[in-house]
Here is the input.
Amino acid sequence: MQNSETITKNASEQAWQAAMPQVAWGTIFLFLGILLGYAVVIPAAVSGEISYPLATLICSYLAFASFTVAHDAGHGNIFQLGSPLKPLESVIGWAASVPLILVPYRFFQKIHDRHHAFTNDPGRDPDYMPDANSWLDVVKGAYSVPFKYHWLALTKLKNVKVIRDTYPSTVTFILLVMGTLLGLSLNGFALEVLCFAIIPLVVAIFFLAMFFDYLPHHPHKSLARFQNTRIYEGRLWNILLLGQNYHLIHHLYPRLPWYKYQQVFYKTLPELEAENAPLENIGMGARPRFLKSPHAAGPGQNAASIHQLLKVSEIERLTSDAVSITFEMPENSSLNYQAGQYITVSKWLNDAQQTRCYSLCEAPGGDQLKIAVRETPNGLVSSYLNQMLSVGDELIVEGPFGDFVFPPKEHKDIYELVLIAGGSGITPILAIVETALKSDPALPIHLIYACRDNQSIMFFEYLQALAAKHPERFKISYVIENPGDSVIGSVGRLNESLLGDLLDLEVNDQLIENTTKTEFYICGPEAMKDAVVNSLTTFGVNQQRVHIEQFVATVTAPIGELKAVEIYTANGHLHQLQVASNQTVLEVAKQQGVNIPHACGNGTCGSCKLKVEAGASNEIPDSIPGILEEEKQAGFTLACQCKPLSDLTLTERTN
Here is the structure.
């Protein structure tokens, strides 16, 4: 039986797909209206029928509206796949981009995919505009957008094939349009070029940046799908902004043409409210006022997950090669995680997005998130976090993740808790210690902490303080490989013999009575974890009560028979992959260095679309907005969703 959340989500999927027209007549009529507007206004101004200032104002709005047409064409929303008029879509897109001059159609189309894939990600969103301190900063940020596009294309994105392939058309378009305007200026029409092209471009760029980039995504902190963009209702705004006050609908369903946003908003409103989307009113209304929705700034109280830019509020040096980092949660927000879970931290470094897993090292329930990071040799991210990160910096945080949790899901009858940590493996163990001390006042806790030397013990003073505060319940056994002159625990490596001594266990073929209700949590280097697990097995400890921290692998391990997948790129190259039916074509391609055009990796942007020429793959759910049902019926798939059921032959799409 379906629950209410599933029913609501299914209704939303049906609503946006049902709203998709075969031909986006609203966009076509808008385009024709823009052409007619220029055809009437410019001659009327030149002949003196209307003033040049009025004509400039009208041309400014026409340039603004032209972007909506180019935008719809860029998403492939004007004519559906299979229409004999589909080639006309690109013609319309190129024509609509002429008033924008600096943003050629094909170049915009490809770089705009990245905005949808990485909304509010400072390192990867080309439209990212950080929250400004003054309106002057907003103005400067707005006018930097088109120039930032080209700078990114020549620097950070220079090796991205789909961007690089637009260079010829970009250069040709800009030279042609600028050359035409220059020629007109030199032949006595400089004032007309200024009033009907240059000033309208300057005005349009500002308002486009404001209503497509800055205001919809303010305060530019959330990367979550339902919170990274807002909606503000208002009939007049819907007309003037051509639907962009419903910008979240566009981000959720980017294949919808602009004039369908409001309709789908009302159809999907129950899901939007259930997902805590930022919904606002301009003027009177029951919803929060414009830019005031709390859901745009943070996930809210007791949130189940977070995907957000968080500010670093504190950095504490723990050892010579380790720091603790505290993230400040947004106002009126907190994360509902379990002791032992981890978050991911992401930062653009060395020309790539770097993501690492770090365990939360404080008990749940606070208004901050805390991790500890040990610097590893040649560790790009750990070195950055230890040496370069400063209080006030922001990092992308996502989570929580992991099943290494306390209390355990399986057992409630616990008579003793044994925690075994090695090095930086103390981080999730510390959160478990704090939680256990708070939640069960009678539970005995024994922490065994192995380190290479005394100086590498993380949180030493804090651990000692906890032991002093709870002497009857909390016992710490340090195991130091190279203690030097000061011995504070056992000396050597944590092996079977030493572990047995510390736990007072002996080898027995049967389950040892005093461990049948003891929970063991183990976190540390792989060699240590393996040694401890093997020792506990030898001692006859119930393996169902042994919990081992394992971060989730970034690449899915293949299960079953590998399928032969051939991919023919648009330039004629052939790539051959071996992909299991539980893996996606994209993840294997990335692992093997095969460059398939892609951006988001989750089916939203649709930029990894491929044609299935032969073979069978899994059916893509209707909830994936990057591909239409008509496109699936025509044999298209998304590399990020495609899992082969047989050998496959795929070809790269062309526009």
In short: The first helix runs from residue 4 to 19. The chain has four domains: 24-219, 306-401, 416-548, 562-652. The two ends are 42 Å apart (CA to CA). The mean pLDDT is 90.
